[in-house]
Amino acid sequence: MAIEFPQELKYVDTHEYLRVEGDTVVIGVTSYAVEQLGDIVFVALPEAGEQFNRGDSFGSIESVKAVEELYAPVSGTILAVNQAAVDDPSLIGVDPYGDGWLVIVRLGDTEELSETLSAEEYKERVGVET
Amino acid sequence: MSETLKRTPLYEHHRRLGARLVPFAGWEMPVQYSGITAEHLAVRTAVGVFDISHMGKLALTGPGITGRLDRLVPSNLAKLSPGQAQYTLLLDEAGGILDDIILYREEEDRWVAIVNGATSDKDRTWLSNHLKEDVLVDSTAEQVLLALQGPNAQAVLADVTGADLAALGRYCHCRATVLGAPAFIARTGYTGEDGFEIMLAAAAGVQLWEALLAHGVLPCGLGARDTLRLEAAMHLYGQDMDESVTPLEAGLAWLIDWSKPEFVGHARLRAQKAEGVTRRLVGFEVEGRQPARPGYAIVADGRPVGTVTSGTVPPTVARPIGLGYVSAELSQPGTPIAIEMRGKLVNARVVKRPFYRRFP
């Protein structure tokens, strides 16, 4: 898929995105991350109920050649985990912003959202023309 | 500090194709063009082409050289006829593996050696020290080496050469013209498919690359080269074996002709054969989806018993597989083992190799 950064989402330097819906956030990896990784073969995700602080590793994502950590872009509690992506990691590569979402989190501290990046800011960080 | 990486004659072509370039063995090489999975599957189902010009290319000649070369490897080279080749090992006096190589006998006393890119300086030095009376010419930088691999490789190559490819058997080679230029063609490869490795002067090699791509052959990089060879259970020197390992430990005892009276490392191998090895390189398959990676510990009965040397989830086999060393008593296919993967123990099993066969 083409590299794109939907305007309505928030982003972080470690290449996770956030879809904020009140005090819950859908988190996944960006299409830039997916493009860099190549064909995704495995994703390790936490269980519902686990808590993370911003910056903690909450899992990992692996391609044929690489292992990358997943970093919590905000603090919170895991509400749901995308089992479909665990069962078929190729979903993440095909539709990272839709069916390839990874976890849903209840936000611990809404102030942390102010430290995330807009689509424009993230696009500049990764230096990609979209 | 930046290292100056070497570039093959095809470097600009790779750049223009948008290849992802990485340092490998001191060279700046394409790891992928369209994607590892696509390239891997192209080789398994149709045909792909790899630029492997980084590999060492040596010509060895001299009256009686065969006897001297024969003493540097555990295989019996004297029995090869001109036009035949042998996958073998350079060993040191301790029986340790210096490199895995292919030796091609062109004439009674004229050989071509293709060696790994990472070890070509070491190999050239070793060979010239042991073949002092002979002529060794290193044409690594002057020649292009392409690997054309896949079930359609012969059909594609037949369009650009008059050589009788149907008559060229596996591990055989010949000299022929390809697109009007002199070339060395060998039916060898590192993928587990039918295919050819073609060596020719740089300019002719570039022309051949362009013609193959114009023919619709997919360019393939080192990423796919690694997944293909792992499925075929072919070893990667420097990862699956090195100087600290003997052929008996590395599962390459089949290369040893024990009836040869003398070769470097011979005494140590005889002793090890009598004592028995304490560890062995095995193939394994992991339960679940998580890939094993080089360096992950192999565990059995709660104790560490070895280490993964190669591992991934490759596109055709589509399950986590790998190679690694285990205690010799655990090396039988079917033996249950576990792999420590990022803090978790995951069950696995020693399995027979190869993991993929062209014709099951």
What does this structure look like?
The complex is a heterodimer of chains A (130) and B (360). Chain A has 130 residues and is α+β, with helices and mostly antiparallel strands. Chain A has one domain: RNA polymerase II/Efflux pump adaptor protein, barrel-sandwich hybrid domain (OB fold (Dihydrolipoamide Acetyltransferase, E2P)), CATH 2.40.50.100. Chain A has four helices and nine strands, in the order E-E-E-H-E-E-E-E-E-H-H-E-H. In chain A, strands 1-2-3-9-8-5 form a six-stranded antiparallel sheet. A three-stranded antiparallel sheet of chain A has the order 4-6-7. Chain A is globular, with a radius of gyration of 13 Å. The mean pLDDT of chain A is 95. Chain B has 360 residues and is α+β, with helices and mostly antiparallel strands. Chain B folds into three domains: 11-55 and 141-231, Gyrase A, domain 2, CATH 3.30.1360.120; 57-138, Aminomethyltransferase beta-barrel domains (Alpha-Beta Plaits, 2-Layer Sandwich), CATH 3.30.70; 278-351, Aminomethyltransferase beta-barrel domains (Elongation Factor Tu (Ef-tu), domain 3, Beta Barrel), CATH 2.40.30. Chain B is built from eight helices and 19 strands. Chain B is globular. Classes of the chains: A alpha+beta (130), B alpha+beta (360). The A-B interface holds A 38-39, 41-42, 44, 60, 62, 64-65, 67, 89 and B 31-32, 35-37, 223, 226-227, 289-291, 293, 312-315, 320, 342.
- The assigned CATH architecture of the largest domain in chain B is 2-Layer Sandwich
- SS field, number of helical segments of chain B: 8
Number of strands of chain A: 9
Average of per-residue pLDDT values of chain B:
97
CATH fold node name of chain A: OB fold (Dihydrolipoamide Acetyltransferase, E2P)
CATH top level label of the largest domain in chain B: Alpha Beta
Tell me the greatest interface: A-B, 11 and 18 residues
- What does the main sheet of chain B amount to? 6 strands, mixed
How do the strands line up in the largest sheet of chain A?
Answer: 1-2-3-9-8-5
Average pLDDT metric of chain A: 95
Shape of chain B: globular
User: And the CATH topology of the largest domain in chain B?
Assistant: Gyrase A, domain 2
Order of helices and strands of chain A: EEEHEEEEEHHEH
Instruction: Tell me the CATH architecture of chain A.
Output: Beta Barrel
The named CATH superfamily of chain A: RNA polymerase II/Efflux pump adaptor protein, barrel-sandwich hybrid domain
Number of structural units classed as domains of chain B: 3
Strand content of chain A: 25-35%
| CATH class designation of chain A | Mainly Beta
Residue runs with pLDDT of under 50 for 5 or more positions of chain B: none
Calculate the terminal CA-CA distance of chain A, rounded to whole Å: 12 Å
Number of domains of chain A: 1
